[in-house]
Amino acid sequence: ARTPSVTALRRWLVFVALLRLLLVRLEWKAQGEEVLQQAEREPRSKSQSINQPHFIFDLLLFFTSLSLFILLTIYLGFFLPQKLASNLFDRAPHLVNDLTGRLFAVWTLTTCALCLVCARDPRVRPVYAATLFSFGAAAAFFASEALVFGTVSLRSAANPGTIAGISLVWMGMGWSYYTRHASSLGGGIGGGNTTG
């Protein structure tokens, strides 16, 4: 029995994320405007919630799934840096040593933690902005490594670059909604400070 490769798992995640982004965009057209208009017509206190579509939950689900998938990259960075080198930094695997692998794993772990904190309560603007910035940094990193430094091929950079790009677009499009109009998800999820 053949196990799926890291690249196959990444491609599947990218496909699911693109499909979900399309569906979320269609939901925003249909429901988002109505929710935003309702929020503007009926100002509420911070403790009251507005009628929210389920795409708030989709951000939570997307970031949680992404974080779980990223655990594989973190494992490779800590325990199998040469596998990380051959899978990701395929044009210059000799530059990836144990220290570089662990550093990449810690950076990835930090992004993973930001995703989970942001997914828990996207209304906290500084956390939302930091998460958005982390995806921008990841996109810039892989673009520069592929196009300027030549340590990764375009094929290797495509998967993490696409995930970072999808996340940037999704979070950029949703900035106003998530940081101003989203209510907490109830059941103990959310409830953070919404100012900032």
Key terms for this structure?
196 residues; 73% helix; mainly alpha
Count of DSSP E strands? 0
The geometry reads as elongated
Radius of gyration: 18 Å
List low-pLDDT spans.
45-53, 184-196
- Helix fraction, binned, reads over 70%
What's the average pLDDT? 76
Distance, first to last CA: 52 Å
Q: Note the run of SSEs as H and E.
A: HHHHHH
**Main β-sheet description:** none
The count of helical stretches stands at: 6
Strand content: under 5%
Helix-and-strand structural type:
mainly alpha
Plain-language structure description:
The chain is mainly alpha-helical and 196 residues long. α1 (6-41) runs parallel beside α6, α2 crosses α3 and α5 (125-149) packs antiparallel against α6. The chain is built from six helices and no strands. It has helices at residues 6-41, 55-79, 81-87, 98-120, 125-149, 154-181. It is elongated and about 60 Å long. 73% of the residues lie in helices and 0% in strands. The model is unreliable at 45-53 and 184-196 (pLDDT under 50).
Tell me the layout of helices and strands:
Elements: H1 6-41, H2 55-79, H3 81-87, H4 98-120, H5 125-149, H6 154-181
Helix pairs in contact: 1-2, 1-6, 2-3, 2-4, 3-4, 4-5, 5-6
Outline of this structure?
By secondary structure, the chain is an all-alpha fold. The protein is built from 6 helices and no strands.
